[in-house]
Task: structure prediction
Amino acid sequence: MMTTLVTGGAGFIGSHLCAVLLEQGEAVVCLDNFNDYYDPAIKRANVARLASLDSPGGQFTLVEGDIRDVETVNAVFETHDVKRVVNLAAMANVRYSIERAPLYVAVNLNGAVNLMEAARRHSVEIFVQASTSSVYGTTAPVPFREDDAADRPLAAYPASKRAAEMMAHSYYHLFGLNVTCLRFFNVYGPAGRPDMMPFRVLDAIVKGKPITLFNGGTMRRDWTYIDDTVAGVAAALARPMGYEVINLGCGAPMPMTEFMEVCQELTGKPATIIDTPAPPSDPPITYCDNTRARERLGFAPKVNTRQGLANTWAWYQETFLRG
Ligand SMILES: NC(=O)c1ccc[n+]([C@@H]2O[C@H](COP(=O)([O-])OP(=O)(O)OC[C@H]3O[C@@H](n4cnc5c(N)ncnc54)[C@H](O)[C@@H]3O)[C@@H](O)[C@H]2O)c1
Result:
C-alpha cells in the first residue's frame, strides 16, 4: 500500500494531518522523537487518538525515532513503501531558538536533508516541507509574498527553515524530487501547542495568571486555523509541482489587543497583562498573501480568528474544565 510518512506526526499539526489522511483510508507512518520541548504526554495522547481512529482502510504505524539519525530515517524508507513525505518534525518557536542555534540547525536543516536524501533514493513522489512565515523577518513588505527574498531571518529558527527550503531546491534541481515548501502562518486550534498564544492566553485567564504581551499589544499575527492548514497540506500532497514555495495563511492579521479582547469575551474574565518590549527575534506583523495557495492548491481558508478562538475555547473547556 502506498504510504505517507509524516514526521512530527505526534505534534500539533502532524496529528491533525494524520487523522485526515487516515480518514481518507491511507497508510500513514508517523516518525516522531517525542522530545520534551513541551510535555510529551500531549504527544502520546495525540498518537493514542490516532491509533484508536476507526477508519476503513486507514493504517497507522508509529516509529519512535529521530530525523537526525540517518539509520533511523533509512530504516523507515526500507521498511515501508513511502511514496509521499510531509516533514513537520522540527524545533519550532522563534524565541526559543535564540540561544540554541546548533540544535535548530541539526534538526530543522540536517534532519530535513536526511529525509530528502532518503526520499530521492526511494523515488518519493512528493515531499512537503514545513516552513514558516517567520522567514520574512522585518524586511518584507506586507502582505508577505513568496517572491520576497526572505534572506534576512531574525533568528536561528527562521534561518534553519529558510536553509531547508534552499536545500530542497537543490534536491529538485539535481534529482527531480518534487518539493513543496509550505510557509505556515501562526497555526492554532483545538489541541494546539501549549507554548503558543491561543492556549497560553486562555489558560492564563482561566487560572488568573498574568500574561506577557509585547509592545502594548500592537503586534499583529495572521492566525490560521488548523483545519485550513491541514487542508492546504493535503492539497499539496495530492499535487506534485516540481519545486514550489507557497504561503499558507489566513490573510487577516489581528492586533494582539483585539486577540486579547476576544479571549476575554470568550472566557468572560479579565486578563492580567504585563507589557514588555518585543525581543529582537519577533517581527511586528505576520501577514499572508495567499494568492498562490488559492491558485495552486485551491486553498480557501474557512475559519476566521474569532470563530477559531471560539472553537479552541470550546476544546479547552471540554478538556480541562469538565465536571
Ligand atoms: N504551529 C505553527 O504556528 C507553525 C508555524 C510555522 C511553521 N510551523 C512548522 O510546522 C511544523 C509542525 O509544527 P507544530 O506546531 O505541529 O509543532 P509541534 O512541536 O507540535 O510538532 C513537531 C513535532 O516534531 C517532533 N520532533 C521534533 N524534533 C524531532 C526530531 N529530531 N525527530 C523526530 N521528531 C521530532 C516533536 O516531538 C513534535 O511532535 C514544524 O516544522 C514547525 O516549524 C508551525
